[in-house]
Design a protein that fits this description.
Bound molecules: tryptophan
Shape: globular
Order of helices and strands: EEHEHHEHEHEHHEHHHEHEHHHHH
Largest sheet: 7 strands, mixed
Number of helices: 16
Strand content: 5-15%
């Protein structure tokens, strides 16, 4: 990240108050603008996912190209992932909710990567067996968003390495140490696992093309903090004979304590709603959540509150409003002072309880197929990758 900005966003560090428009400029990505959203809505059968309509996904690379290919009859596949270091929280599902929507509307194959290696390298206190255990728990949560078992595939890094390794070798040869040092901000004490890791996060972008023996476009819904990995990927793609992956980037969900991202790294557990939190914990966390409310009831009735800085509004926006109409009425009543924070909090808490109960049921059901979705080795006799040279 540029040294004189007041915030930092890399896959390994998110700091400061993020100016998202500026971040897009710094990263050199495109705006997910009205004409493109409209086109996506048209191709998807009439509407876009609420996360897109509400501006949570706000940036992209080459989404238009993926849609061009789709219109020409060349389907794309989806790819997203999770570094397992603990339980998932509600906003971790954003990228998978969007993938599920694309899968349903466009019939796309989905590839999930569980990076139980990455997190061992990135978190000093996490043991390898714990990362693997969380990886499987997280995978159940991810599949429970409603993926099609026939079209969903999983790379679980420590188990899928035989499938990932051939392409990782080719990628790693083309990425220099000075590139990853600059892109990820590595320091002399950074372990060599992280130095190599980005090669593994690249592989799923290319794997379906490698296996098919021809170019298959890739679309990655993810938080914008992951973009640096895919900049590296995009630089090596064409020299290796693969198409550059396209990306749609979301903003980072704000934490309940009003911190910039709903991450628990170095923070407290109170900053996020975990999918395995007991109902009482959920109530307590929401009760204590940071809002955009005023100092007194009288003031709030008179002046209204500020949804844009409110962590509870972010819950409605990213997951819990059932319809655009409901989202708009929550926003309006917040801004006007008609609904006070206490009422808003108890309404959203009710939604969270309902969601978690349904999620827990779906999560039990995916146990039947989760294991068999994991890719353990490449198919026999994979045609070698089309490539421009050694
Ligand atoms: N690096 C991501 C994390 O720390 C995990 C990940 C792997 C990922 N592949 C991905 C995220 C693709 C988004 C898209 O959580």
């Amino acid at each position: 990240m540029a040294p004189n900005e007041s915030f930092t966003v890399t896959p390994y560090e998110v700091k400061g108050r993020i100016d998202y428009a500026r971040l897009r400029e710094l990263f050199g990505t495109q705006e997910l603008d009205a004409p493109l959203i409209e086109r996506l809505g048209r191709l998807s059968g009439g509407s876009v996912h609420p996360l897109i309509a509400r501006g949570v996904y706000y940036s992209h690379r080459d989404l238009g190209w993926v849609l061009d290919q789709y219109e020409k009859g060349q389907p794309f596949f989806l790819y997203s992932g999770r570094g397992p270091s603990g339980p998932l929280h509600s906003s971790h599902l954003m990228q998978f909710d969007l993938c599920q929507w694309f899968q349903e509307r466009f019939g796309a194959e989905m590839y999930v990567q569980i990076t139980d290696d990455e997190k061992v390298w990135a978190r000093a206190k996490l043991t390898r067996p714990d990362a693997a255990r969380w990886g499987y728990e997280n995978l159940l949560d991810i599949l429970a968003v409603g993926f099609d078992p026939k079209k969903t595939h999983v790379f679980f890094d420590t188990r899928s390495i035989a499938a990932l390794y051939p392409i990782a070798v080719d990628v790693a040869r083309r990425v220099t140490y000075s590139t990853v040092k600059a892109v990820f901000g590595f320091r002399p004490e950074t372990n060599i696992g992280l130095v190599f890791y980005t090669a593994l996060q690249t592989v799923p972008c290319f794997y379906p093309s490698w296996v098919a023996g021809h170019a298959v476009p890739c679309l990655i819904p993810c938080g914008i903090d992951q973009d640096p990995h895919f900049r590296v990927t995009r630089d090596v793609a064409e020299p290796l004979g693969f198409p550059k992956p396209a990306i749609v980037h979301s903003q980072m969900a704000p934490g309940l304590r009003g911190e910039r991202a709903m991450s628990t790294t170095g923070g407290t557990d109170d900053n996020a709603l975990f999918l395995n939190d007991p109902p009482k914990e959920i109530d307590r966390k929401i009760r204590n959540a940071f809002t955009g409310g005023r100092a007194t009831v009288e003031e709030q009735r008179r002046l209204g509150a500020t949804p844009e800085i409110c962590s509870v509004w972010a819950l409605w926006r990213t997951k819990f409003a059932r319809s655009d109409a409901e989202f708009e009425s929550v926003t309006r009543d917040c801004r006007s002072g008609a609904m006070l924070c206490g009422e808003c909090k108890s309404k959203v808490a009710e939604r969270v309880h309902e969601f978690l109960a349904e999620h827990a049921e779906r999560r039990e059901r995916v146990r039947a197929w989760a294991e068999s979705a994991i890719i353990e080795r490449p198919p026999p006799a994979v045609p070698d990758a089309p490539r421009a040279g050694p």
